[in-house]
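Q: Could you fold this chain for me?
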Amino acid sequence: MSGQEKQVYLDYAATTPVDERVLQAMLPYFRTQFGNPSSLYSYGRAARQAVAKARRQVAALLHAAPEEIFFTSGGSESDNWAIKGMALAARRERGKNHIITTTIEHHAVLRTCAWLAQQDFEVTYLPMDAEGCVTAAQVEAALREDTALVSVMFANNEVGTIEPIAEIGALLRERGVFFHTDAVQAAGHIPIDLQQLPVDALSLSGHKLYGPKGTGVLYLRRGWQPDSLMHGGAQESEQRAGTENVPGIVGLGCAAELAQADMTAEQERLTQLRAQLLAGIRALPGAVINGSLTQRLPGNVNFRIAGIDHEVLLIRLDLAGFAVSAGSACSAGSLEPSHVLLAMGQTAAQASEAVRVTLGRYTTAEEIAAFLQALTRIVKELKA
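A: Sure. Below is the predicted structure, expressed as structure tokens.
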């Protein structure tokens, strides 16, 4: 590993390690406090109280009411529930058959919309500009009398662009159209105040904010009730059947509380590290930064080096001791160019050069300096 004692992890957008404090909060609920929250005796009451506490912790992070927080298995389930559930309810109850989304959404949204298209829904996919941004005006132009819902991600998982959610939400609130946002990359990293933000449904995932995998949340504003995907028992206010994943929910609640407490300081720290990283990358021959330079997640840098395929660069960086990616972890192993970069107007050849570096809670300035040193050396060798 060229002098690296251990691999440096720079792919926090793919997943985050469970915070030690989160792990310690979870451990009792595997063995000593293992009750089923639906049970009436003391074991069940203890588990039920733990789930209720976690619900309050997530609600505080989002500035929402606890009764608007529903626990799921992750961001993909939350996206599916919001979009399928609301689309099916809107068609059955009001005859609405049209969905609006964007071309850069996560596959959990895009493939859900594709499934709905097979069920005779019409889907409009809004194009993006070169920075990966959509506008409220585009949404307005696409609205129809039969529009059932709009889904626009809060921040893109590949290039980090933050979308104008407040403006889009304000427009849709005036029109009475249900608005969902996939906030998996944003929640816990940038402020989200659902008392002020006109969003009706929001998805988040525990493993993106130092909580456990297999946990997530769907926020549903009071007054909206999409059809359920999971049928069975009366869990989650009879909206999602199945015995609650108590250790996971406890971990997600703890992670949400920690994220809220540290958010301002962590934003500032990661923004400084991102500036250090951007400066070093821009100094390289043929370097191009992908995505917005102003409306961007604090820990995201997506770039390409003209003439160098990302697969070659990733392998060389891995051998040098650095874990980075070519984009979404959900597309790992795919030979297809990034649908996000193609939607932003890049050619397939340009998209095949893109590398994503994402920073997190344990990233240090020394790691960034070491990464830039290794990257500079590798680029020089590959261009020789």
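A (continued): Residues 246-282 form the longest helix (37 residues).
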